[in-house]
Recover the amino acids of this structure.
């Protein structure tokens, strides 16, 4: 599989990336094609007798109990807010309709 300009444009749109020059677009296309070439190289290996790797190490996760603690009161949290109303933090709107 080869990456073409249309694919680069679609990926850039999905990732909300912009490139400023044609050279930048070509560099992205070159890098993506290099990644695919590396994956193709890995596909050449015979892995039929290899067990799937489930964990990267022999370590076992030690999980603690989820204990609910009231470390800070509602009023104390709001005291540090740059903008607030009686019960909530006020934050600037960051989502716009397209």
């Amino acid at each position: 599989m080869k990456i073409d300009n249309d694919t680069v444009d679609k990926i850039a749109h999905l990732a909300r990336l912009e490139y400023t020059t044609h050279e930048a677009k070509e560099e992205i296309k070159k890098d993506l094609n290099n990644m695919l070439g590396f994956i193709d190289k890995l596909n050449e290996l015979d892995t039929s007798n290899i067990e799937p790797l489930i964990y990267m190490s022999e370590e076992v996760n030690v999980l603690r109990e989820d204990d609910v603690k009231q470390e800070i009161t509602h009023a104390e949290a709001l005291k540090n807010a740059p903008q607030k109303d009686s019960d909530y933090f006020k934050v600037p709107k960051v989502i716009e309709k397209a």
Q: What stands out?
A: The two ends are 32 Å apart (CA to CA). Residues 22-43 form the longest helix (22 residues).
